[in-house]
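Colleagues,

Please find the record for the four-part complex below.
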Amino acid sequence: MTSATTDYTPETLRAELNAKGWRMTPQREVILNTFKTLPEGEHLSAEDLYNRLKDQGEDISLSTIYRTVKMMARMGILRELELTEDHKHYEINQPRPHHHHHLVCVKTNTVIEFKNDKILEISQKVAEKYGYKVLDCQLTIIGVSPEGQRSIF
Amino acid sequence: MTSATTDYTPETLRAELNAKGWRMTPQREVILNTFKTLPEGEHLSAEDLYNRLKDQGEDISLSTIYRTVKMMARMGILRELELTEDHKHYEINQPRPHHHHHLVCVKTNTVIEFKNDKILEISQKVAEKYGYKVLDCQLTIIGVSPEGQRSIF
DNA sequence: ATGCGTGCAAAGTCTTTGCAGCTTC
DNA sequence: GAAGCTGCAAAGACTTTGCACGCAT
């Protein structure tokens, strides 16, 4: 298991998979590359990814996508985000300087990204205390945006 | 909308509901009280809550439970947690000294709770910057436990 | 009296799984 | 060659919704 700051390439992914007796495939490479080139702050649901790839002429089944993103999340390659929507979103797990967190409005469902280095520091301290290795840490602030505060409901 | 540190009672809940043109009901009171008396650190899924109430002779439909916990989460009364499982868990949204966060192992699915006051401080600062009111904040650290590190897969 | 809330059953959404065939090691 | 991986279709888990009746305001 590699740390959250590994910069995965198809080669390092292949190596890690092979070490576990698993295999590199074209599908896995395409998915990894898609996340690696995703603009910072953008995150995709399984279906988003499916459609995006389809548009690019890459026909990867939804099953494979679900299987792959879950695997990559468990490996620490992707961050699994559960924000306001009722399905998971994924984004590449960036090393420290790019790591960000989310501020979500319960009324408007707006999501704001923000950075804060202390959070990773705290996480590492806590994890160390329990002997855990950190793959990812996510601070999600749930609140009400200025627009949301104006509405009664 | 009230702050995360409000200590809800059936009366304050009724007042807040009425102010919005909504209503207090026996079901809502039972659900609120159940969460209020839940041991710290315990959190329930909709189905957990349904069964627990049934055992106590309180027959509240699953639909109502889903509707109520979602409403209470939006009001900031409950925290909506998405940890390792594929369904949401709820717990009362405690004021600061009892607020806790989660350290999750991707391999064993173990969840450890921990407290850290700095996290709420950081959240409040961030929220303020954007003009948000904080209802809840959750730091989730995803990692690998010592036991998990021993297994290859 | 009004209209929100509940319970029921049905529908919906997102995700997982079994299996046959293909691909990687 | 053996075993993992993919795609398809079907199943599954959890959650939401329409509607008629009852209850809070």
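The first strand of chain B starts at residue 78 and ends at 81.

Comments are welcome before we finalize the supplementary table.
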